[in-house]
Amino acid sequence: MPVPYITLRQYEREVLSPLKVRRDGRGICYVNEQPPDRDRHGVLWMRYLQALDIDGMPVGVPEWSQTHPVRQRRASQQLLCQVCSLPARADDGCFFLEVCSGENGLPAEWPEGHVTTEPPLCPACLPTEAEQRRQLAGLGQAVVVMAATPRPYGVAGVLFSAAPSGRRRVALEETIGDVVPYGDSRIGWMLASRLALRLTDVRVVPPDSLTTARRPGTFPAARAQPAHVPEER
Q1: pLDDT mean values, one per 10 residues, the chain (233 residues)
Q2: What integer pLDDT is reported at residue 228 of this predicted model?
Q3: Omega before 111 cis (within 30°)?
Q4: Quick check: is 168 in a domain?
Q5: Pick from 183, 180, 206: which is nearest to 193 by CA?
Q6: Do 195 and 155 touch, CB atoms closer than 8 A?
Q7: In this predicted structure, what is the pLDDT of residue 219?
Q8: Contact 94/150 with Cβ under 8 angstroms?
Q9: Relative to the CA of 103, which of 34, 43, 120, 165 has its CA 20 to 30 Å away?
Q10: What is d(CA 89, CA 76) in angstroms, rounded to the nearest whole number?
């Protein structure tokens, strides 16, 4: 079974760096901050070690339940396949795989406007990954959707605040499992670990078609074209 590109590997750990309150008092910053520490929306990101080979691919024992923040952000930002890291965009959009828990089915408005921290999948990796997710879903269900327009929406991560003692010190508030949208008043106080995309122009892909996804004409073929979201610096 291939190890997904975004999966954390052994010895890849967060680089713990001192934080302080920004001079304008509107959020946090690193004491020794560098331009790559922030995304294009000005949000601060966790620093993480990477174990990569000479081709830039991750190596080492996988930690299956964890995702590497840097690679998750890259795959989501550039619309790369979360398994093989090749461009995931097909002619009509990108495939996304969502596991929905429970037996009550999906909300009536789903999946248009759905927000996800899962990067897309290319047509070649989609069938195998979908089958694996279905086996792990239990009472839930793994649903494939194609989104013509995935756009950056916000981040998940750790929320900080200004410490009562002052002196530009920060205090840990909570780990945010839900996504904080760009534009939210809390966004400047987030130390991000996952980029979220909002999916629009969405359609659900019939499960029966996944087993034949590799056949020409069943799914639009992935093309080596510029990602929908340009690469950040």
Answers
A1: 93 95 94 95 97 94 95 97 94 86 60 93 91 71 86 96 81 81 95 96 80 43 34 45
A2: 34
A3: yes
A4: yes
A5: 180
A6: yes
A7: 40
A8: yes
A9: 120
A10: 11
3-state secondary structure of 75: helix
Task: Report how many domains make up the chain.
Answer: 1
Residue 20 — φ and ψ, nearest 5°?
A: -150, 170
Give the per-residue SS3 of 123-158: CCCHHHHHHHHHHHHCCCEEEEEEEEEEEEEEEEEE
- Give residue-wise pLDDT tens across range 118-151: 999 999 999 888 888 877 766 567 788 999 999 9
Are the beta carbons of 11 and 63 closer than 8 angstroms? Answer: no
SS3 63: strand
Taking CA atoms, 175 is separated from 111, 127, 162, 185, 194, in Å, by: 26, 33, 16, 16, 12
Residue 71 main-chain phi, psi, to 5 deg? -75, -35
Determine, yes or no, domain membership for 217. Answer: no
212, part of any domain: no
Is residue 216 assigned to a domain? no
pLDDT at 94: 95
* pLDDT score, position 229: 37
